[in-house]
Amino acid sequence: MNDITFDDLDRKIINALQGGFPVSDDPFGEVASWFDTDRENIISRIKALLDNGALSRFGPLFNSERMGGAVTLAALKVPNDRFEEVTKLVNAHREVAHNYARTHELNMWFVLATETPDQIARVIEKIEAETGLHVFNCPKEQEYFIGLRLEI
Amino acid sequence: MNMHIKVTTDDKDRALLAAIQDGLPLCERPFAEIGKVTNMSEEQVIARIEHMRQQGIISRFGLVLQHRPLGYRANAMVVWNVPDQEVDEAAKIITAHDFVTLCYCRARRAPVWQFNLYCMIHGQQRSIVEQQIETIKSAGLAPYPSKTLFSLRRFKQTGARFSTTPENERRLG
Question: So where are chain A's domains?
């Protein structure tokens, strides 16, 4: 995967809009005014950043727990020779929001997000049945900080 | 704000969430465009989105980065085993560092997994992230057993999905 290159304005747009986007009748025009450019330029740059893969999304992030949903972090101990197969089985569930291979005996870590708390247990049961592996479910007990925002 | 309290949404809110979850239209008046799809005026769309933001249903509105193509490849999950009564204090030490992007306490899964306090650090170089972890340890976390799990590969990063028809999807699923 090659690093993506961008100019100063791209950088400024990315850094500023990670924090929020104006909800108004002319939001792109408002953003343009911060950077002394025009609306069309902002729109075409965001489009280009989505197309080249720098951005995964431009829109809202939901707190599904506030809507009655549930989220958990879970891990699997996957034998090396089964990694590809298990990845496919796990990611096939639409409740899997993200999934990372990590450096530990528990080598696959994924986040489950469901619309109701009892669905978490059901998805875990399914994944265990499909993979034959035990799912280590590590639900959140306390949230201290979420500030995922990267300066580029 | 207690994030475990469920707030109410009506059908219009849910229709709106479904319409914007894959992203905003890139056009002059995106909220008017959303209004056309959901049979609402631009003003109604804006007012409802603002309201959902205040209620915490929409936690953030803006860009979501792909870390890796942007050079953020050293993504560390650092975990500690901290006695329950000391967790709050330890978390305070961790979150005082501005390079920490997330911090949670989670259930242990003994005997395989003894760790309960988690933090994430996203960096461009592994050596710098390792130094940052040392900084946290010297600030007071050194006494607790810990492990650092760097991510090797990412398989999926879609964020939480939202559906307007949970009943149907549940049946299909």
Answer: 8-51, 64-138
Q: Is B132 on the interface with A (CB under 8 A)?
A: no
What topology does CATH give the domain B11-64? Arc Repressor Mutant, subunit A (1.10.10)
H helix intervals, A3-146: 8-17, 27-34, 39-51, 83-91, 117-131
Class of domain A64-138: alpha beta
Do B105 and A144 make contact, defined as CB atoms within 8 angstroms? yes
Locate the domains of chain B by residue range.
Answer: 11-64, 68-150
- Tens digit of pLDDT per residue, chain B (173 long)? 444 555 667 888 889 988 988 889 999 999 999 999 999 999 999 999 999 988 888 887 888 777 777 778 888 999 999 999 999 999 999 999 989 989 999 999 999 999 999 999 988 899 999 999 999 999 999 999 999 999 887 766 655 554 433 332 222 22
- A34-42 own/partner pairs: CB under 8 Å, 24+ apart: A35/A9, A37/A9, A39/B28, A41/A9, A42/A13
> Which residues are within 8 A (CB) of B110 and not within 5 positions of it... i.e. 6 or more apart?
none
Distance from CA of A132 to the nearest CA of B (A): 17
CB contact under 8 A, A148 and B154: no
ipTM of the complex in this document: 0.74
A71: contact with B, CB 8 A cutoff: yes
Q: Which fold has domain B68-150?
A: Alpha-Beta Plaits (3.30.70)
Closest residue to A147, CB basis, from B53, B70, B101: B101
